[in-house]
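Final report, Chapter 2: Outcomes

The project's central promise was a pipeline that accepts a single protein chain and returns its three-dimensional structure in a standardized token representation, suitable for archiving and comparison. That pipeline is now operational. To close this chapter, we reproduce one record exactly as it appears in the project archive, with the input sequence first and the structure output second.
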Amino acid sequence: MIIKPNLSRILKPFENKWVVLSPDYKKVLSSGDTLEDAAKTIKQSDREKVIFHRVIPAGFSPNAI
């Protein structure tokens, strides 16, 4: 079981973007406005090892009406 660290500090500069995280969730390996942009620099053989994640803006609440 992987215990995810608090990502808020490392993801803050990437709000509203896609990021590629290292398998241990400690580093942002790539980022982009689209998933395709973020994936461009990741080797095909590594794509099943990394984590693709969309960073939503701080304070965003999908349930707020």
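Archive annotation: The longest helix spans residues 35-39.
This record, like all others produced under the grant, will remain available to the consortium after the project formally closes.
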